[in-house]
Amino acid sequence: MGGWARFLALPFIAITPRAAAMQALSGLAPAARLPWFLGFALASWTLAGLATAAGHATMPLLGPALLAALLFAKPLSQAYGRLLHHHQGHDLSERRVQPPI
Q1: Domain ranges within the chain, ordered by starting residue
Q2: What SS3 state is found at 22?
Q3: I need a labelling partner for 14 at 20 to 30 A (CA). Which of 6, 43, 71, 97 fits?
Q4: Cα–Cα distance measured from residue 58 to residue 52, given in angstroms and rounded to the nearest whole number
Q5: For this UniProt entry, which segments traverse the membrane (predicted)?
């Protein structure tokens, strides 16, 4: 796959599918990389959209303390991940990764 199909991948480059692709694509043949990436990215975005819709629908049912805790869940998970990598001896600033496509 190439040409116009690569344009389908552009919206996904700066999000979670790219992080997963950096680990998975090196084991795939070059011709299989774009289809894998698009399939994973579209599934990821679909699930994220459904989760967002569910969150908006249930938000009025939740208390202020729980809403505040949910607001900070993502930044705390990011901080924990960086701390974990640091303690395992990984330096995220020196990471060299090839583009997924």
Answers
A1: 1-61, 62-93
A2: helix
A3: 71
A4: 10
A5: 47-73
